[in-house]
C-alpha cells in the first residue's frame, strides 16, 4: 500500500477549510477560516455572501495548509473536495480551486460527499475501526443515522424531517441573544451549564427551538431564566436524539448483528452533554461510542482528505482535469 498524501478542500457551508492528510492517518496540517463575523451581521448564511467570502480566502487557506505541512503541490498524490450536499454557490468555489490545482499539477481528483466524510473521519481518528459500524451524524444541516456496512454501502436508518439539531441550537442561541461569534451551539451549551432543565416539561409540549423562542421573549433580562431555557431546550432536543438513537440501534442490530461501534460525529457531537447522554444509550445497548475530537467533528478539511484517501485506495477517483480549464467550466 503506497503512502498517499492528499489535500482536502471543504466549502459546503460557512467555513473555508483545507488540510493535508497522509494515508497512515497523520494529519499534516489543518486550516479553517470561519465566516462567523458575517453570520453575526446577517443572522444566518446568505449564499451569495458566503460564496464571496469563500472566494476571498480559498487561495490563502489552501496555501496555508500546504505551508504548514511543509509541502508543495508537487508532493501531493491527489486532491479531494466536497461536492455536496451544501450550498451550490459555495461548493463551486472549492471545486473550482480543486480542479485548477489538480489540472496544473496533473493530480487525480476525488469528489467527496460531506456527510460520508463526517462518518469516515472516525476511521482516521480510530484506525482500528472496522466496517460495519453505525454512525449518528448531527450537524447544522442534517441529522442522519446510518448503518455503514462497507465503504460506499450505507443504509439510512433515520434522517431529519425539519430542522437539524445544530440549526435548532443556532436558532435558540439567536433568540436568547447569545454571542454567536463561535456559532450558536457552544454558546447554548455554555449557558445551559448554569441552568436547570425543570422547565423542560413545559417545552416538551411545543417544538424545541420554537418553544425556546417563546419563553425567551418573556425573560430577556434574567440570566438565570435564560440559562434554564438553554438547559431545558438542550434536555428536550437531546431526548429526541436519544430516542431515535435507541430505536436505530435495535434496527441495525437486526440487519447486522456484528456491529460493535457507534460513531457520533458532526458539529453537535462536540457538545459534552450530547456525548454523555448518547454514550449512556450506546453502552446500554452493548455498543462502543466513537466520537472524534471537536476539531474533526465540526466541518474541516481533514475529514474530506481522509474520505478521499479511502476512496482513492479503492480506485475511485477522476483523472486530472485539463491543465487550462476555462474558469466557467465548473
Ligand atoms: O458539522 P458542522 O460543522 O456543519 C454542518 O455540516 O452543518 O455543524 C455545525 C453545527 C452548528 O449548527 C453549530 O451550532 C453546531 O454544529 N455546534 C454545536 C456545538 N458546536 C457546534 N451544537 C451544540 N453544541 C456544541 N458544542
Ligand atoms: Zn458538516
UniProtKB/TrEMBL annotation:
Catalysed reaction(s)? Answer: L-threonylcarbamoyladenylate + adenosine(37) in tRNA = N(6)-L-threonylcarbamoyladenosine(37) in tRNA + AMP + H(+)
Main location, first listed in the record:
mitochondrion
Question: Which top-level group of life is the source organism from?
Answer: Eukaryota
Entry cofactors: a divalent metal cation
- Relay the cofactor remark from the entry: Binds 1 divalent metal cation per subunit.
* Purpose of the protein: Required for the formation of a threonylcarbamoyl group on adenosine at position 37 (t(6)A37) in mitochondrial tRNAs that read codons beginning with adenine. Probably involved in the transfer of the threonylcarbamoyl moiety of threonylcarbamoyl-AMP (TC-AMP) to the N6 group of A37. Involved in mitochondrial genome maintenance.
Family membership noted in the UniProt record:
Belongs to the KAE1 / TsaD family.
State the name under which the record lists this protein: Glycoprotease 1
Organism per entry = Salvia splendens
Lineage of the source organism?
Answer: Eukaryota, Viridiplantae, Streptophyta, Embryophyta, Tracheophyta
Amino acid at each position: 500500500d503506497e503512502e498517499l498524501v492528499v489535500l482536502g478542500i471543504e466549502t459546503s457551508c460557512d467555513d473555508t477549510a483545507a488540510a493535508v492528510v497522509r494515508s497512515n492517518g497523520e494529519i499534516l496540517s489543518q486550516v479553517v477560516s470561519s465566516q462567523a463575523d458575517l453570520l453575526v451581521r446577517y443572522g444566518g448564511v446568505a449564499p451569495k455572501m458566503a460564496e464571496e467570502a469563500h472566494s476571498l480566502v480559498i487561495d490563502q487557506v489552501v496555501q496555508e495548509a500546504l505551508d504548514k505541512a511543509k509541502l508543495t503541490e508537487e508532493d501531493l498524490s491527489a486532491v479531494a473536495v466536497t461536492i455536496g450536499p451544501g450550498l451550490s454557490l459555495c461548493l463551486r468555489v472549492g471545486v473550482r480551486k480543486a480542479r485548477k490545482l489538480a489540472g496544473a499539477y496533473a493530480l487525480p481528483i476525488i469528489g467527496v460527499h460531506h456527510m460520508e466524510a463526517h462518518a469516515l473521519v472516525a476511521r482516521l481518528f480510530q484506525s482500528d475501526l472496522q466496517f460495519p459500524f453505525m454512525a449518528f451524524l448531527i450537524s447544522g444541516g442534517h441529522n442522519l443515522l446510518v448503518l455503514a456496512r462497507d465503504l460506499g454501502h450505507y443504509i439510512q436508518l433515520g434522517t431529519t424531517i425539519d430542522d437539524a439539531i445544530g440549526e435548532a441550537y443556532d436558532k435558540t442561541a439567536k433568540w436568547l441573544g447569545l454571542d454567536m461569534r463561535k456559532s450558536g451551539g457552544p454558546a447554548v451549551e455554555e449557558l445551559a451549564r448554569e441552568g436547570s432543565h425543570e422547565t423542560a416539561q413545559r417545552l416538551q409540549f411545543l417544538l424545541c427551538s420554537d418553544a425556546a423562542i417563546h419563553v425567551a421573549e418573556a425573560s430577556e433580562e434574567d440570566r438565570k431564566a435564560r440559562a434554564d431555557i438553554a438547559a431545558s431546550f438542550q434536555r428536550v432536543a437531546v431526548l429526541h436524539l436519544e430516542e431515535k438513537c435507541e430505536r436505530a440501534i435495535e434496527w441495525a442490530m437486526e440487519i447486522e448483528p456484528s456491529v460493535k461501534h457507534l460513531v457520533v460525529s458532526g458539529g453537535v457531537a462536540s457538545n459534552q452533554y450530547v456525548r454523555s447522554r448518547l454514550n449512556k444509550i450506546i453502552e446500554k445497548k452493548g455498543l462502543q461510542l466513537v466520537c472524534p475530537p471537536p476539531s474533526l467533528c465540526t466541518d474541516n478539511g481533514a475529514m474530506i482528505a481522509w474520505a478521499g484517501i479511502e476512496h482513492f485506495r479503492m480506485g475511485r477517483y477522476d483523472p486530472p482535469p485539463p491543465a487550462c480549464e476555462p474558469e466557467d467550466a465548473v
